[in-house]
Amino acid sequence: MDDTISAIATALGVGSIGVIRISGPHSLAIADRLFDGREKLGKENARKLLYGHIRDGKGQVVDEVLAVYMPGPHSYTGEDVCEIQCHGGREALQEILSLTFQAGARPAEPGEFTKRAFLNGRLDLAEAESVMDIINARSRQALAAANRGHQGGLSRQVKALRKKLRDLVVQLEACIDYPEDDIEEVTYDRTVSILEEGKQAVETLVRRGTAGRILREGLRTAIVGRPNVGKSSLLNSLLQADRAIVSNIPGTTRDIIEEQMTIGGIPLVLTDTAGLRDTSDLVEKIGVERSRAALEDAQLALVVLDGSQPLDPEDRQLLDSLRDRKKLILVNKADLPLALDVEALRKACGDRDVIVLSVKEGRGLDQVEQWLRDFVYGEGSDSESSSMTQNARQQNLLEKALQSLEDALTGARQHLPYDCLTIDLTQALHDLGEITGEDVPDEIIDEIFAQFCVGK
Q: Domains plus CATH for the chain?
């Protein structure tokens, strides 16, 4: 890459500081042409912030700035990089950016700085994709997961797995090509063992990918139940704000209310629904229909029941409709005498998935938080500190690799010829290589970095 690019690296809008980033072989010459300070930008002042001013072609001061020169390959992009820190006003930023173009830089494309870091070997593809996840993190756990990816957590596991599979392919192909030579024979039992180990490793990554997606996008959660069981009170309690109107009149909530929040580090897209019941009220009926649609779209249902009353037919109908869905049953109003048979409910729906609480008194909400953590990460799992996929592309490639490994494993158990096994293994290697960028088409690379923001 023999051209030099420039872009505003900070977010659009007014701020105290703005940063213009320049990367490429002529970045120092361009910055030096604009920067006027007591000390000059150059190797003697590499990685040292210098105070000065940016001047235009007429010698007029544009802004008071700090500038730094970072020679490659020890820079973000692996190239010579200069950054100019000015006041964060729109005019100052745009004027300095325009001057960099006049001095020989071209506008950077979306994600081009990170793309250059990838092409120059500073980051692999999975690490580069984690950059956007760091920027878009919606919770502390999401940020931690993205940072683990950026530091190579996922890449190291994928590369280690690829090496084992590649060694197996080499041994199998040697046996195919040189059957009469004195080569250590690869037994089918050993092949099965290696494939089972690889399959288990990919299955773990696929399973963690679900948690990764939830951390990125939020867990779509619907609060459902019949009218007046405390759904809106639960929403307000979780949000710690009076977001929904609460009254003892059934049917108060007539439309769905959607809020985003974080519980125990898990980002939730929480929907409070109208009470699910048969009604002749036209407006309430529309709300019930929307509630059923929201429930259908949800990844998790929080089913609220009134513990001060026995289960009624509407409760049973709701529970029956959610028999095969992921759900947490919340027996509310524990501050009142308990009339609902909780033990029978636990026998029918699972002991772990029933929590008795009082939204009014705030009792039991800590159990809800722990349940959500176990639901996302897996009970007793180390996924909170483990690497996980960061996007649908990586998840899809892992699932494809898993299928190829399963096919190879089936073939090895059936003692199919080695060349049949290498076909599936080669496909698995290709899919895993696409995750880290070791084996990926140029058009996929372009498509990935086009999703980045300009300046990153």
A: 5-122 (3.30.1360.120), 131-214+389-437 (1.20.120.430), 218-359 (3.40.50.300)
